[in-house]
Design a protein that fits this description.
The chain is an all-alpha fold. It is about 80% helix and about 0% strand.
Length: about 425
Amino acid sequence: MTHPGRNSRSEVLAPFTVRSFRFQWPADLLTSWATEMEILILGWYILAETGSVLLLTLYGALQYAGTLIAPLFGLAGDRLGHRNVLCAMRAAYAVLATLITVLAGLHLLPAWAVFAIAGVAGMIKPSDLAMRNALVAETMPPDRLMAAMGVARTTTDSARIVGALAGAGLFAWLGMAPAYACVTAFYVGGFGLTLGVGARHPAGGAMARVSFWRDLRDGMSYVWDTPESLAAMWLAFLVNLTAYPMTLGLLPYVARDVYHVDQTGLGTLSASFAVGALAGSIGISLAGRSIRPARMMVIYTVAWYAMLLGFVHMPGIDSGRIALVLAGFMQSLSMVPMAVMLLHSAGAKFRGRVMGVRMLAVYGLPIGLLAAGWLIERFGFVTTTSVYCLVGLALTVAIALRWRHALWPLDAPANAR
């Protein structure tokens, strides 16, 4: 008789039997750690230099400037190989981080320089998650994909714990330049490990004969004509517009102006959300093939908004941390099944383009951040974020009802195990 715990451990460890994944997981981990440290360090630096929540949200918005061209990165991955494109992207991160380290060391880092470098990085970084997800799907047997995506997601979730705490601690302890030297080292390590990822080469001859723009149009048409994919895209845009701003861009403001704590307090808030997200990702990897992706996506998006609504009404930082843990947990249980559903549906032909189109939804985040910065200055944090949560809840239910025939039946393709 097989022990249930042994089956769960097998689900978690199975992706590591693939050589490519043994390189990709630590490469993604180091890159994610560096990104989280960078966002926290520069976010606090901007707030300290300018004292403006609006400029803080502008910095956060610049992180996602490249979402509009994410489908082009996806198409490049389909044509040139997802590993090759990801290596080029990560080399660029290392170069830009080195530039900030040098400028900080020379005390020549004004706020405008941070905005300029963040704008360049923001043209590239939004496509990183799409490329890494497509690469996992490209190298992983289909029966291990759900578990692999759960394990892969732990790189991002753990980064929000380690990266947030390490970024805040190093910045407070060592100062800007040494802290950013650590960020640069992580980016360099991530690039080096990505070189070891092995993936099948794209069918270059076949794709070369097809128009670049026709390829892109075909990917967009595929999403538009596939009900479950279109529903997932609208839901992804919605959560980026109304949910993620609270935990990806506004936490420095919450830490300083709502809870009145320093960088360390900010790190604990960011890490709390990440602890919950990490637990959710591990739960996904343990459950593996028993998950019904579309149903889970809808149910836990509703739960995510409910937890965020609780967070914005918490009276103190301790209860706020607990609410963020629960919100992070629900977020993973919603977003990982969404990614798996999209990858299964797209197949090898459209994988990169569909994930690139998925990243277009991230454009909701800079819009939501900029709007939140303007609204908070006029109506306050609690009022603004409460409205965000209630609107998100209502529209999630509307999306579920509009595409219920594609998302809810157990025998629907979107719920295939």
